Amino acid sequence: MSSIPTELLPDTRRALVHRLATGQVKGRAPSVVAAVVRDGRPVWVDGWGTVDGRVPDGDIQYRIGSITKTFVAVLVLRLRDEGRLALTDPLAEHLPGTVAGEATVGALLAHTAGLVAEAPGPWWERTPGALRPELADVLGREPQVHPAGQRHHYSNPGFALLGALVQRIRGQAWDDVLRREVLEPLGMTRTSLLPVAPHATGWAVHPWADVLQAEPAVDTGLMAPAGQLWSTATDLATFAAFLINGDDRVLDADTLAQMRTPASPPEATDWDHGYGLGMQLLRREGRLLAGHTGSMPGFVAAVWVSPDDALGAVVMGNVTTGLAVGSLAADLVQTVAEREPRIPAPWRPLPSVAPQLLEIAGPWYWGPAPYVLRPLADGFVELAPLPGGGRGTRLRPTGDDSWQGLNGYFAGERLRVQRDAAGAVSHLDLGTFVFTRQPYHPAEAVPGGIDPAGWQAGWQAG
């Protein structure tokens, strides 16, 4: 049996280097470093330009800006999965005393709380956190610029609040919690709040001349959860693999899928972009990408993943503006996906399946619409429409002949097996949608009843 190739083809690698090099030149960045992840591991890491006289490699730290927000979102969702909070909880329930206490945790993650985009006072990205020693200094006196829930409005102070929330519940600085709960389990040893050598210097490039000016790299204090982390291409490649597959030591795959689900409405003219829970979403060439871009003075970065392709890409550069890292990272994903389409793993039977799952497997009908229910691993099931059918969903087991939808129209809804007096399966009920073994089965509890005449032939309109 042939094996799936683990390395990229030479022509693919050359295409990646060409895209990286042209991006660095066009973006006039002193240096750029990038990585591609496939099937859970880095398959390409390269740099262009120089840092301290040498081509950057996967171990050089760059500031990653708002990619920090995705790390903070992971910490918040860990608290949710532990039952310590709910996304519908008002912030004040866990972090009292702020002027944004009515904002829900979920709205802060999705940037729908209507809070200001930036902290008041001097530009927070270039000034020390000592200028904003309290949360009140982060929000200002009038933090609400839109009604809550009305629209997506990106808010850096909103993630400062989420970092403070993590600290309040865990009783430890958010970056220490991050290191213990995320970085160490994933083996990300080169991601930190402050730079650790070797690291790049952040530069601004003159708009009309090829000269540089160093940018400040300050500790932003309470605003750090919005964008202060430093990382490397190797570490962010590890994080990209995690965003695709999950890791039960940190967050499982279902929670990662929820993070990638749109939670904020896009702008009316911008339907190719969206936002989930701490993750940006991008639809490009028919491919749905999830991740985040980031910028701080002197640095830009991006990480995009395509779970359907089992691919991810990371790009980092040390320039304030000009380098389109989001497009560059998306191009790297697309290059590999198109040149080397994903080869599926061999089909294998399930290691085990409960008898009650086999009892409900197979064709079902919602009215006349055909569906098929298939058992998956670990007791999960998938209800998929056949041609001429409708909405499908993947469901997780909740016990007692019931499952809960994970995606699509039926996300959160309950599928319950209904049995007759003898204990045999009669029909399925999914959020009041009744599924029977035959279209409009006359013996089952079809809402509205069944026409006594049943199915008729030779019927003529009019």
From TrEMBL:
Residues 21-333 form the Beta-lactamase-related domain. Keywords: Hydrolase. Pfam families: Beta-lactamase, DUF7586. InterPro entries: AmpC-like, Beta-lactam-related, Beta-lactam/transpept-like, DUF7586. One of its GO terms (molecular function) is hydrolase activity. Residues 354-437 form the DUF7586 domain. This is Serine hydrolase.
